[in-house]
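Bench notes, bay 3.
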Amino acid sequence: MTETFETIRYTADIIVTRTDGHVLLIERGWAPFEGQWALPGGHVDPGETSRAAAARELAEETGIYAAPQELDLVGVFDAPGRDPRGRYVTFAYHLTVIRNTPIEAGDDATRAEWWPLDALPPLAFDHAEILAALPAHFAR
């Protein structure tokens, strides 16, 4: 019997909602899905938890700073094929902020914008599925 091993990459994504029912999305600056809208997120660095990575990526990509313990776990998303680069497992977190929270795109995000939850653009990866997993009481 031959054993095969799959390389699995570990990532974290973050859903940021405002108290007025908007969600924060970034426009991706490179492939895959360059120019498309997505949740902030990225790879977990060595020695880092997924929660800490979500907080770091949020700050790098949107200018919003949050302590890792402020983030609530939404779920783990690991479907094969969710990322065209290979097998990726992401831990998705949620944070609610007030309406006037400033944002500034950075790192691999070319833009960061607030979108009404009921009028979202097409999303990269499986980010629509991740958003759908957000309990309704967190969405507003």
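Next record in the batch:
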Amino acid sequence: MNSVAAIDLGATSGRVIVGRFTGGSIEMETVGRFANDPIMTPGGLQWDLMALYRGVTEGLREAFRIAPDISSIGIDSWAVDYALLRGDRMLGTPFHYRDERTAAGVEAVHQAASFDELYRRNGLQFLPFNTLYQLACERGVLDAADSMLLVPDLFAWLLTGEKVAERTNASTTGLLDVTTKEWDTALAERLGVSERILPRLVDPGETIGDLLPRVAKDLGGSAPVVAVGSHDTASAVVAVPMRADRAAYISCGTWGLVGVETREPVLTDAAREHNFTNEGGAFGRTRFLHNVMGLWLLSESIREWERTSG
């Protein structure tokens, strides 16, 4: 079978991987690896997405060099963060979810909708950086925007020119109805988020689009970009062969995610009070989980030691 290319973007680094299916097994080769270094600006902590895009394109260029038969490209990343666009122009540099500005957003959102109501509608644990809280800090920019793209969808747009929202990552925004898995436009409008900025939803397995001609020329090859579980935890969980009915998982990266996969969301008072979350999984399933401390402190300690070691 043909090869595939995977773009995996984490909060501290990114990589491009070529995968090949041979004899019932998968062979993987990392062909690009690059740092993800956020930048502290006068406006706050922000992502250097153009540096990431350079890493992505360099990795894809190498992928097409060693595997001209690549048949599709998939992209996953961390959740909740986004870019606002007007037409084909990005409005500013996207913020890092750890930026401190979101405290004011939490207060504004909870004045319009209580956490109890939000949990019934979106099923999400309280995290002060969930997308809906971040958007509440963007009042002026929101008026100028005509689309919002989460990070993996932004990279898909840069490669294809198509603006979509893949459901597993969209489920982390707080604006997706946890039951219908469609945009909760009534809640969005109440929170000051216009329906016009919410892109068309797609599911894992759907083709987003072909590479733009100028992108294909630059990369030395062409293949369609296909939606995957673009929230990296969704892709991690679907890869685990959890055949037992009572299987659980621990996905450890910048965060540790501990949970189970369910057919329906769990929206009980106990789930809300213990701050469990219901995030979208592949094939319409739900990832019922809790965030615990991951490797962020270790990663940041190493980054600081390297910076000050001489």
